[in-house]
Design goal:
Structural class: mainly beta
Largest sheet: 6 strands, mixed
Shape: globular
Distance between the termini: 37 Å
Strand order of the largest sheet: 2-10-9-4-5-6
Radius of gyration: 13 Å
Length: 113
């Protein structure tokens, strides 16, 4: 399965962006899927992921601001990001786990202060 991420860009602090990740095949049976992010010199950090396919789990720093969702009919996972902060600036990667990690290409999110 290939993952195609999009939706990154430049936004001012307090603004919103929605990231999309389109898979090359059905994601209906992919239970562990979500988004990571990475800044230069740092390891990738889990931002949001599904547990059991429907329950979202968020890193504390984005709780209440980010929303993870999926549309199985469109083979797409979304990350709605509201109230963005400069510290949210990173390359965001779509990801899923099926016996091993699968990564999409990153999409850059830049939040200006």
């Amino acid at each position: 399965v290939q993952l195609q991420a999009s939706g990154g860009g430049l936004v001012q602090a307090g603004g919103s962006l929605t990231l999309s990740c389109v898979a090359s095949r059905s994601i209906s049976n992919i239970m562990i899927m979500g988004w990571y992010r990475q800044t230069p010199g740092n390891e990738r950090e889990m931002v949001a992921r599904f547990i059991g396919g429907v329950t979202p789990l968020y890193v504390d720093s984005v709780k209440g601001r980010f929303t993870l969702s999926r549309d199985n009919a469109k083979n797409t996972v979304y990350l709605q990001m509201n109230s963005l902060k400069p510290e949210d600036t990173a390359v965001y990667y779509c990801w899923y786990f099926d016996y091993r990690d699968y990564w999409g290409q990153g999409t850059l999110v830049t939040v200006s202060s």
